[in-house]
């Protein structure tokens, strides 16, 4: 993540949208990109290297309203995203690109890095190589000493500038279709005689283009082009195309006064096309145009950008259909309305709450609606009337929290995503796991499209038909993952043959068709995937299948070695470990891949066969059995030993919040009947790892995985994917409500004796002593049922400062586990 100043709360009303308005200084651009969410015209964001200043904007007060009147006003888009302009799940995310070596999403707020352009496509907070970042625009107020066309250094290295001069930036979305187009408005300094704009066809985030071409219409200034680019997290390549039109804002620019193609350092005047004539390395390529300045006022030039994965003609058609009139304010207002309505479905009462937590909650919620992206109509692989979603980057990151959060307040989008995933399976054989720009990318663990589909169906099976989700096709897609081994399980599906025969992935068997690594972590994750399928089978009345996959979900025990001891801790015994095909165990140090790994192993996709784990240690994966934590407690020696192990993980610094397999660990005390300790640890996690600064996340956002993780913790909840149970703690707000537009219900969690949120999370009036649902005592202080959300219930929490609270005294007080009869 980048490091830089965080916008003040008063700036946050000016933080989101889809077009881009840039006001240039004499040279350079500013240090931070400031998208606008449709704030009043009199409010602007002025950014300089010293920080962010804004016009004054009134903020809602607790005394004027119980809830936040405009949830979108509390979003800080500088936390963990590309900081670009978009609408919910939009394909195009226009934003500033910089040359930071660590800018995985394309942007870094650190002012030491240079701006290289404003590109159209981005993913949200990813690892790996820089994805997308296609079709950059870059304005020139002057070029070289003589300010001549030929002196403009059009290459990325030649044009890049530090963000030293003030830049005011506004961004403005259109709502007729969120996917394919963008409006930029470049306002040039007074006295600019030759305002110019570069259109860069070839420079994506990886400089990977081949087969590129560009054409320019010298009469209209329209620039079209496209190229083939590399996927950022896999072996595939994709084509993308663009169409750019220009128009003066408040005046007629006429035809470009100068124009030319560039393929190299400088443009060639009066040329109108450029094309790669050989396959292999391609020099940078694009167009440069000069426009007439406005003789009667400020020179502001609008650029309408269409994008397509199909063709340049379709990119033009998209732009013409969706932004026919270049209306900036209209489209910005429409985007603001979308964000306000969507984010406002979850309302919090800010009374007695630090505004930082309100901003953190809505900023986190915002990021859960960036990915996957809606590419409907832009699938280059086959024709279909079904929705097409892309930018699954990756399901391994998002299935735990992002989709369960979507289930609480946005089931319509959830259903469209599920339909799109089913359609991909029907054409490609297996559900998508990691995917970008229509290209399959590397699988990290299991087939985690399974828990996503199961999460939807377990909760919405009664509404599946109305939401156009076919139950039979959904179940067949799950069975394809569970039963059929693909030609390459690096890119889709699972290594199912040996999984079905041995019940684990052995360390010493080499099988053609994919990577023979991550054997232990894949075993644990395959087991959970099968559990989620068992839950769908039960809903469908497929009793035999339900039992079969529930039994297979117990295979995690096949890699549990009860004889392994943590180094120097003889009372912490038993860990997930690699196993040979003959049943004998190999040994992996429990610290391997941890924060304190003595060998500093990375455990990414380049791990060796003997590593056995992916982005997590044996310590972490030995706690990952979300469907049967009771069995895990039994394997670890009972409640006391289980609690001792959890305390050790936290107190000795082995809790790794940067990777998703750790996300449920703070809540695991619930299963040992110590929910007060879960509350402490989850609140310590927020205090230590999350805030609203530009580096206010543990690592990157992983396509909204970290945003949804934080949002659940702040809501006092943690999900159990593909079940009807949600773990319960205390929200950071005296009241939080979830409005569901499909169920037409509003569910409210209200805390009695709420007295704010202690800074370090270790004490205070934050522990749940008792729970009532619709006025009746509930069986548990540790979890609630999905029925409370389908019914639109009032959930009342009695809070205390006593950390020694329990789940309750009844036999159904503990959260369910498979081995103790839960989920039946």
From TrEMBL:
Where is each Glycosyl hydrolase family domain found? 314-800
Q: Which SUPFAM superfamilies match?
A: Six-hairpin glycosidases
Q: Name one GO cellular component term.
A: nucleus
Tell me the first and last residues of the signal peptide.
none
Biological processes annotated in GO? carbohydrate metabolic process; glycoprotein catabolic process
- InterPro entries per UniProt: 6-hairpin_glycosidase_sf, GH-type_carb-bd, GH92_a_mannosidase_put, GH92_N, Glyco_hydro_92, PNGase
Transmembrane residue ranges? none
An example molecular function term from Gene Ontology annotations: peptide-N4-(N-acetyl-beta-glucosaminyl)asparagine amidase activity
Q: Which segments constitute the Glycosyl hydrolase family 92 N-terminal domain?
A: 75-149, 184-308
Name the UniProt record assigns to this protein: Glycoside hydrolase family 92 protein
What species is this protein from? Ganoderma sinense ZZ0214-1
